[in-house]
Amino acid sequence: MSVLVFAESWNGSFRKGTFEAITFAHDTAKKLNFSCIAVTLGNINDNINTLSNYGADKVISVNSDFDSCDNKGMSSALAQVAKQENASVIIISNSNTGKCIGPRLSIDLDASYISNVVETPSESSPITIKKKAFSGKAFEIAQTTSSSCVLALSPNAYNITENPNPNCQIDTFDFTTESSNVTSEKVEKSSGKISLAEAEVVISAGRGLKGPENWGMIEELADLLDAGTACSKPVSDIGWRPHSEHVGQTGKAIAPNLYIAVGISGAIQHLAGVNSSKVMVAINTDPEAPFFKAADYGIVGDAFEVVPRLIEEIKNFKANN
Amino acid sequence: MNILVCISNVPDTTSKIEFTSDSKAFNTEGVQFIINPYDEFGLTKAIKLREEHGGKVTVIHLGEASSEPTLRKALAIGADQAIRIDSESKDSFGVAQELAKVISEQDFDLIITGRESIDYNNGAVPGMLAAILDLPFVNACTGFALSGDSANMEREIEGGKEFIKASLPLIIAGQKGLVEESDLLIPNMRGIMTARTKPLTVVSSNGTVDKSKSISFEKPASKQACKMVEAGQEKELVSLLHQEAKII
Fold first, then answer.
1. Burial zone of A52 (CB within 10 Å; 0-12 exposed, 13-18 middle, 19+ buried)
2. Residues 100-129 of B with CB under 8 A from A
3. Which whole number is the average pLDDT over A197-212?
4. What pTM, to 2 d.p., does this model score?
């Protein structure tokens, strides 16, 4: 038996979430005493051997061109490989691509589907696993009731570790894609340099910033820390920032190592989307802001004074470290 | 244009999430239920499409009779008719199979769901539906325009957006952007009155057996008290983040 993991790529490059998924698959396979097989779809420009660094025992490369929207084709290729390799656990990253493929794949394989998982299975028979629920307000212990399952790993929930396997074997798998009735026409990069879901540091701001013209300091702070930028719901609703930056219960759920919230009061809906962050810093003029109950560090003060000073201090810190 | 909007009945976003004393189920006591916010964007989009292109908007939901107020609200907002599949709540697989059966007996041009429900967040029903019904599927859809027998769409991807073309019939899983927050419709008195007489059909469950189950729930571990740093002492914050939190 084997654990199969989809080594997701975009434009031929693996993502951070790919390595999280491989590490997770390696650890799960070890627990179950299975082998860990990574599958790549389409042309890969990165070195496929890197997958063995994170614990793949075998890499199967599906040589076919997939349209980035052809979730049916990708799912069907993965299903064929899973059957060939007798895989009973299939792992994907719960990324935008993963979310399109995972549910389809579970139907193709007649398998259980559990998404947003954050830990390796606590029991193997049946697979019992912890996942996020209620938009970050709780965790659920879920159990599969079929003999096979597709598990979608929550981004930034599982630490990447290296488990080099020098004997990793690389195989190819022939698959012919059918013409897809969903096609990608073009891709547009958003202004933020770093994808929010994968960002290790996120700088977020709310209505306390008074207007979109004041985001310069947020972007400067984000640049300094290689961070993604985010915002509260009201800010995206009034159009100060794009919807893609809205984090919270009805926006994106994120789990960076560091989340700095500037001028965000910390409504329950906002906290739901960000409370998986490892460390949270709140900067707010109102000492009663609910964010201070959830944050690890807080500064009560005017963002227009605190943030520029913080930028200076981080520059000093970087100069000395 | 015949549009179906799949509706999930979820706890209000302001709800405190509590579980029963055995931690086995969500405690619904005192909880207000609403149309899943992602589905509400889809419902509003469906009504706009009907205004532009004509046709009918049907909403569908799987649940017990207690969820009917949510369906009535969808009718008050502007859906033409509602279907309730009479069943206890099911997992994503169960819901998708039940929905697929009803959908396969009718003729929809467009099926809209939310990207996920804000309670169990599995985000699986639309993709599963697409697989069962063998329809094209676009997830995290943030823009939709009809052009003849096909649709031009936008979807969110990591670090950007993608422009997509697909033929109808089609399943999309929507979110904000499909319509804006300010486009969301609040039922008016006339809407509420007419909703009472709009058809709400109850169909029986096809008895699909789930493929997963909930064992228990837990709340995230509570955090230690927030460490406050005086304004003006940002240097201290930086050193705390470096030395104590080891994050920078």
1. buried
2. 118-128
3. 95
4. 0.95
